Amino acid sequence: MKITKVLVSQPKPASEKSPYYDIAERYGVKIDFRPFIKVESLSAKEFRQQKISILDHTAVIFTSRHAIDHFFSLCTEMRVAIPETMKYFCVTEAVALYIQKYVQYRKRKIFFGATGKIEDLVPSIVKHKTEKYLVPMSDVHNDDVKNLLDKNGIQHTEAVMYRTVSNDFTSEEEFDYDMLVFFSPAGVTSLKKNFPDFNQKEIKIGTFGSTTAQAVRDAGLRLDLEAPTVQAPSMTAALDMFIKENNK
């Protein structure tokens, strides 16, 4: 079946130079962007149930911009005034710079890693071993950060501050696609929640990442495109090759 309409479960690209637009133009395909999931803050009441005092900590480890947004929004909601002495440790410089949205960057002690891997941030954390660290997290997370900090004898508290929920479709939204592209297992879960009677038939499904691919198989669906591969290291590269092959 020729592919003419694709739904990508990601926000619309900020740049008009996105490879997705090149693909749409090259093959005459309509590509829509519509996240199947969204991230929302815990309420102050929900957060308090964890019995964690933010001001008992002297440093915060941020693994994403989401973590920054929800940390500061919860502090605002609970009227917690963060002292200027608070130190911030971020996985990348881009995440570190994002803190400027909430505090004056030059007045703060901010550290960041070079590659985006939490392992590269550990040397900076170890240099400040006496700090009491707070790690804002999603309700869905692995123990990589916890295990690494425990291994290095770092005093820390993990705090769930935000969660991933299904971004439900409305009855007015059309759902008539030849192909669906997913980037997380939660997106696949959302598909089944929104469309419990979903019948794949000829609809192609593509995924990025091994856990998302497995989620599709576990849901009893047929996986038609799996990225990344050596030939296609990105989703757009994989999609380009797939549409080219299918639309001959």
From TrEMBL:
GO terms for biological process: uroporphyrinogen III biosynthetic process. Residues 24-236 form the Tetrapyrrole biosynthesis uroporphyrinogen III synthase domain. Gene3D superfamilies: 3.40.50.10090. InterPro entries: 4pyrrol_syn_uPrphyn_synt_sf, 4pyrrol_synth_uPrphyn_synth, UROS/Hem4. SUPFAM superfamilies: HemD-like. GO terms for cellular component: cytosol. It comes from the Bacteria. GO terms for molecular function: uroporphyrinogen-III synthase activity. This is Uroporphyrinogen-III synthase. It comes from Bacteroides faecium.
